[in-house]
Amino acid sequence: MPNWKNLLIYLGIAVLALFVGGLVVGVLFTHFLVDWWWFDALNFEPYFWLRLLYRYILSGGVTLCFFLIFFLNFWVASNYLGVDETEFSLLAKSPEGSGYQRLLHRFQTGSMQVYLPLSVVLATIIAAPFYQHWEDALLFFFGPSAAAQDPIFAKNISFYLFSFPLFKLIQDSLLWTFALLSIAMAVLYWIEHRVVPTEHREWPKEARIHLTGLVVVALLIVCWGFMLERYALLYTNHHGQVFFGPGLVEMDYHLPLIWLNMLSFLGATLAWLYQLNQGRGLKAAGVFGAVFLLSLGLHHSDFIPHLLEKYVVEPNPVDSEREHMQANIDATLDAFNLKDVKFVNFDLATDLGAEIERMGPALEQHLANIPVWDEDLLDEAFQQLQGIRSYYRFSSVDVGRYSIRGRLQQVDLAAREVNIDKLPDAARNWENRHLRFTHGYGVVVIPAAQRGEEPMQWYLKDLEQQSSVGLAVKRPDIYYGQENLDYAIVPNKLDAVEISTSEPDGKTDYRAQGGVPIDSLFRKLIYAVKHRDEKIFFSGNIGGDSRMLSRRNIVERIKTLAPFLEVDNDPYVAITPDRVYWIQDAYTLSNHYPVAKSISYPFKAGATEKQSKTFNYIRNSVKVLVDAYDGTTQFYISDPADPIIQAYRRAYPGLFKDVGEMPPLLREQLRYPRDLFALQMQIYARYHQTNPDQFYQQSETWDFARNIGAEPVRPMQPYYLTVDTQDCPNLQKFVLISPMTPVGRDNLSVLALAGPTEKADCTGLDYSGKVVIYKFPQKQIDGPAQISALIDQDPVIREQFTLWDQRGSRVKRGRTIILPIGHAVVYVQPVYISASTTTKIPELVRVIVSMGTEVVMDRSLDAALKQLIAQLKAHKSRQLPVNKTSAPEPGVVSSPLPQTMLRSRQP
Fold first, then answer.
1. Distance from C-alpha of 754 to C-alpha of 675, rounded to nearest angstrom
2. Which one of 80, 232, 515, 584 is least enclosed by Cβ atoms within 10 Å?
3. What pLDDT, in 10s, does the model give residues 225-271?
């Protein structure tokens, strides 16, 4: 009879061991499990496994290749060792013979105890860089052909974006590998033929062939390095003060020397090998070696290049470097997507009174929707007027455009997010942080145009989400946003009191499918280990339907999903009748575009110089959509012409969608990114001079206009404006406007516009975007700084500022909005008053409008416009000074700015 009692004990021990083993494995793989569950909850599980597979296949495959190279060479060498038994017997007679015998026998038999661990260590060391650059290999395998060629060697740009970085890494690793192998094999054969105390013998033929083969492979790798060095010339920065890329010295001096280096090194090595194997060729090896050393010395010496620069280049800089400067200009414009910029000459009316009469009521319509609030000042007003609860915060103010009463109108809006750090100290406990105060609630919306000294007009406000214009959001709960949000566990068994919710029964239960279910003790344990918080496991308020919401900051969320994308520092909120969404612009970057100038740019607010990204190629290739309620994240390709994003699309099928698949209400909110436009204009300020003579002189270099009236004084940031399209009356688009001045001057040179372009059939917009430059006559148009001086000189305005700027209040002037309309330029600057006490609520009190030399100030744009028209009519004979304009640049169209290009909509 079997002992059932013992059997049950053994069975219990086995179950316990399995349970304990499962817990141990789970704890050891906590991060892996948490990531797996998180990706699965977002429906990205196939992408999770594919990315993991790529990483380990590519990096592990490289390690395996290097291991096989080392191990097979060691194994072959061990079989070529030719110590015979007679020599072993002679060694045994000497005192140290037994030690020699054991040593030689171990090397001869290729003992796994020596070659296997040695090969693993060497392969791991050599392959280490590939563990960090495995995505370079991914791009190499999946990268498509690009539509451009480099201007020097006429190779497809895809070679430099996808192949060249990987080739450099492979060449360097292979060179180290075969250099080490050549030394190691030589040492092994030397041990056999020099350590053994017998008469010298010739090396076996097989050993000579082996060593010769290793040297030949190393020779070919070195020659490959010389070939790659040619392409490295395209990234030369020796002419950085004038242009980027190779010049006369690099192409006419260094490039021939690179070829001479390669050929002489090849000849010297082959002659030396012939000498070793055949006993002849020493003289040839010496000649080739001398030529190699001489060419190598000349290549790395600065003496002759300095003479060429001093006596050839500097006396004739443009003539000698013309084609190289042109190559740099063309490559840089293409790399920063500025190749198709359109220039339009802006014809300015000399009689502003006549221009006003010609435009009539259209001018008022143009000004009716100008944004009169600066986002940073509006943020302070929102915090004070609509924060409502201590734990709510508006992380940023965004700009949008929505249909209000049947008309498309520009608005300012912000999401009310939760900020636990604003709770009283006594309330910052675990339950409040993770189970009660889990989400923000609601969006505030105001029209861009406001009136001074009147209560702010609201389109959507308060926790009840009141709206007088029909705006409504069914689920205004915000669980994901821009704040540094910690994890939340919802729904749970707590009854939260007076916390806003969209649920009809008033409960704050979370009823979406976002987050990871934690419906088992095992998952609770894993998350407790992950967050190092035992309360997750022991809390009785976590139910079977609870879900773990993590990575709730949208930037962290996107970077975890797609770390190969760089994100804009200004995600913006968008609303639909159903949900609140976040839209994030994402970029593909590269620093390997040939002959293009590099730039450093901080894509994160407050980033240090070291945290800035350095690149010479950028595309706004992806628009990311994040649901603020359930965290659903979708990636939409907005620039299908970008070869980098197409490579990732091939590598990760199903991750990306076409931008046309985005819901229409959200697609209407897409815009040209402010970060991209700012850095493009930073480049274009110099590189719009496409003629090498002009580019060298830098006589037309631009700078960002300064906003003198604002505090603190700083370069003007591009601002958004809703406009009609020129050729498609039924389409409106959001454009960025950036005023540019000459370097060191304050008069306006150009007005740069960036935004989506209409499709040829007017069925929609192309969201890859385009830049248009409106060029003004030189020395005829005042810039923001000069307009600020006119405002300061006006006695009525100066007196009013003096009156306000006392008795506990302070006057602030906002950004100057420059708006060309018809054949005239209008300037608008808001004026605010804020208290100098602790509680500061900025109030819009006046709007300044200027045209020509006329400056007026009133409570609203409408009233200021009427004043301006009256003054211009009273001084109808007043004209702007007429100067002879410069000749238009090649390809520039001379025309007024079409009225439909900048037509704002009235509410």
1. 12
2. 232
3. 999 999 999 999 888 788 999 999 999 999 999 999 999 988 888 88
More confident residue, 745 or 361: 745
pLDDT at 507: 60
Q: Identify the residue with better confidence: 129 or 452.
A: 129
Which token pair is 674?
């402010």
The yes-or-no verdict on residue 494 having pLDDT over 50 is yes
Q: Cα separations (Å) of 370 from 608, 870, 903? A: 34, 21, 10
The residue written with tokens 């370097």 in the block is: 743
> If you compute the radius of gyration of the chain from its CA atoms, what whole number of angstroms results?
36
Length of the chain: 907
pLDDT, tens digit, 9 for 90 and up, residues 602-631: 877 666 667 788 999 999 999 999 999 999
Q: Outline where DSSP puts E strands in 822-899.
A: 824-835, 843-851, 854-858, 893-894
How many whole angstroms separate alpha carbon 703 and alpha carbon 686? 9
419, 392 Cβ separation under 8 angstroms: yes
Q: Provide the total of helices (H) and of strands (E) in the chain, helices listed first.
A: 29, 29
Edge-to-edge, what's the strand order for the sheet holding 547-549? 488-490, 547-549, 516-517
Cβ atoms < 10 Å from Cβ of 194: 9
Closest by CA to 546, choosing from 435, 630, 394, 681, is 435
Alpha helices in 279-425 (DSSP H): 282-300, 303-308, 317-335, 352-359, 362-367, 375-386
Give the C-alpha separation, 325 to 149, whole Å.
16
What are the beta bridge partners of residue 847? 830, 858
Residues 6+ apart with CB under 8 A from 699: 689
Give backbone dihedrals phi and psi of 143, rounded to 5 degrees, phi first: -70, 130
Report d(CA 573, CA 397) in Å as an integer: 9
Q: Give yes or no for residue 452 having a pLDDT over 90.
A: no
SS3 letters across 759-789: CCCCCCEEEEEEEEEEECCCCCCCCHHHHHH
